[in-house]
Amino acid sequence: MIELKYFDRPDFEQLIDWIDSPSFLLQWGGPAFEFPLTTSQLERYMENANRKDSETFIYKVIECETHKVIGHISLGKIDRKNRSARIGKVLVGNKHVRGKGIGQQMIKEILSIAFDDLHLHRVSLGVFDFNLSAIACYEKAGFIKEGLLRDSRKNGDEYWSLLEMSILENEWQKMKGSSV
């Protein structure tokens, strides 16, 4: 089991340690960051986040049994008028807990915040088309593939395509009902 708690300055070093290459940074953070990840970049990322009316909520993922930080996730671009938001920065940082369903738990927790607490209607995300384990995780959580943004990010000499996915509140309610 995991819990999400607000990400804060004392968590910066752990996250910086997890991001060990330019390609991994692009996978985790998209074009918003430059390698190497720095404290000043994370301070900008945190500006105006985690307040009652923020457009972004940023979380560290804590393993309940050990109380260790094992990951990171955010809910951003929160649009209260249109009742939508975007999941981003999904990372199971601790390599020892990967492949154990932690990603699935993280997505369920963030969707609970989005739909049950913030009463949103739609939550979207982008994932690189080669990240098959993440795509499977998102589909298992109820996300639907919407489209492919071909060659949308440049990594070195190659281009990566981004798969857009989303889930709607009625789909979340159905998924939630079937997993109880």
Can you summarize this structure?
With 180 residues, the chain is an alpha+beta fold. It is built from six helices and seven strands; from the N terminus they run βαααβββαβαββα.
What does this protein look like?
It is a single chain. By secondary structure, the chain is α+β, with helices and mostly antiparallel strands. The chain has helices at 12-18, 22-29, 39-46, 102-117, 132-140, 169-178, and strands at residues 2-6, 57-63, 68-79, 84-92, 122-128, 144-155, 158-168. Strands 1-2-3-4-5-7-6 form a seven-stranded mixed sheet. It is globular. It starts with a strand and ends with a helix. The model has no long low-confidence stretch (mean pLDDT 95).
- Helix share of residues? 25-40%
Question: What share of the residues does DSSP label as strand, in percent?
Answer: 35-45%
In the predicted model, the low-confidence regions spanning at least 5 consecutive residues are: none
Distance between the termini: 15 Å
The sequence of SSEs as H and E is EHHHEEEHEHEEH
Characterize the biggest β-sheet: 7 strands, mixed
Q: Give the helix tally.
A: 6
How many beta-strand runs?
7
- Rg over CA atoms, rounded to whole Å, is 16 Å
Shape: globular
The SS-based structural class is alpha+beta
Whole-number average pLDDT?
95
Strand order of the largest sheet: 1-2-3-4-5-7-6
